[in-house]
Each structure stands twice: as structure tokens, then as C-alpha cells.
Design brief:
A hairpin with an 8-residue loop joins strand 1 (62-64) and strand 2. The protein has helices at residues 16-29, 32-39, 52-57, 129-132, 140-150, 155-161, and strands at 62-64, 73-77, 81-87, 90-102, 121-126. It contains six helices and five strands, in the order H-H-H-E-E-E-E-E-H-H-H. It is of the alpha+beta class. It starts with 15 loop residues before the first helix and ends in a 22-residue tail after the last helix.
């Protein structure tokens, strides 16, 4: 007569708070923010366009991010940077690019979203995931879930290590000149 429930997630006993802090500690140990300031911030090839229309027209540097598209308007930079961290007898390899998200609300349609909870941010993805597989090397999607979805009060911590671009370093592509001649 009763009902039975089973947990189907892969829970190892850590809650979202602990997982978020573990991820943040890894970012601190890897010194990601200093690397970001040296290699990403100020790089015009990775800077977000100021409007969604600019991003859609700048096809040489940005592509629509369909993996993050459910209710969002986001593009990611085609340009990538490699980030390597060696520590605790392990080497971690990451690919870094920019994710630029734009408003879908009528009053500010197409404007760049900055900061939590759904703003633009640096996107860090592991490469050679089997080598990176470790408790402290949560991928950004997991960290976003732990810090912003499960514990919204920690979203500022996530965006501290994955800052939003302000579009101040964005330079639009040069306009091409076309000459029409009559036949």
C-alpha cells in the first residue's frame, strides 16, 4: 500500500554549499583570476559585443551558443585560450572562451547582461576530461548549478571567478567596401 522513492542522482554526501566552496578553492589555488587578468581581460578578440545584434553579425568571432539557449540569447567566442594548472601531482588542462548573453525582455531587448544570475561570463571547459576527473575539478556547468541554482546566495562567488565582460574592449569588425559597376 505504500510508495517507495529512490534517489537517482550521483550524490557522494557533499551538499551544494560544500561543492561550491570546493570549486572556489580550486579556482583560488589555480590562481585563475590573475591568469584571467593577464590573458583574457582586455583581449578584443574575446570581448563581448555590446548588443545581441552585433554578436549575430560578428560571425567571424562569435557563434550562437545553442547549448545554453533555453530561454536565453547567448553567443560564445570562437577564439580560445588554453589554461593549465599543475598541482597535487595532477595537471589540469582547460579551454577558456567568452560566453556573451543578451536580454530577451522587451524593455532592454538585446542588451548585454552582466553579472549574476544569468549574465555573460568567462566559460572554462576541461579538455582531456578523463585526466581532469577529480573531486576538485568541477566543470563550470556543475559549479554554476551548485553556486547559482542550488544556492542562489552564492552566485556572486561564482561570478567572482567567472567575471562578466563589459563590452568596453569590443571593436566591431571593419565594414567591407563594395563597388557596384553597371554592365
Amino acid at each position: 500500500m505504500g510508495r517507495h522513492f529512490w534517489r537517482i542522482e550521483n550524490n557522494i554526501g557533499k551538499d551544494a554549499l560544500e561543492k561550491c566552496f570546493t570549486w572556489a578553492k580550486f579556482q583560488q589555488d589555480a590562481d585563475f583570476l590573475d591568469w584571467y587578468k593577464l590573458h583574457i581581460k582586455g583581449d578584443s578578440s574575446l570581448a563581448c559585443p555590446c548588443t545581441g545584434w552585433q554578436a549575430s553579425l560578428d560571425r567571424g568571432r562569435f557563434v550562437w551558443d545553442w547549448t545554453f539557449s533555453a530561454g536565453f540569447w547567448c553567443y560564445r567566442s570562437r577564439s580560445l585560450k588554453l589554461f593549465t594548472y599543475s598541482g597535487a601531482n595532477k595537471t589540469f588542462y582547460f579551454v577558456v572562451n567568452q560566453q556573451c548573453c543578451y536580454s530577451t525582455r522587451l524593455e532592454d531587448l538585446g542588451s548585454l547582461k552582466v553579472g549574476p544570475p544569468h549574465g555573460s561570463r568567462v566559460k572554462v571547459a576541461p579538455i582531456y576530461y578523463r585526466r581532469n576527473h577529480s573531486q576538485e575539478a568541477y566543470i563550470d556547468q556543475q559549479a554554476y548549478k551548485f553556486c547559482c541554482v542550488d544556492r542562489p546566495e552564492l552566485c556572486d562567488l561564482f561570478y567572482f571567478y567567472r567575471p562578466s565582460d563589459s563590452c568596453s574592449d569590443y571593436t566591431p569588425p571593419r565594414r567591407r567596401k563594395f563597388v557596384c559597376t553597371s554592365l
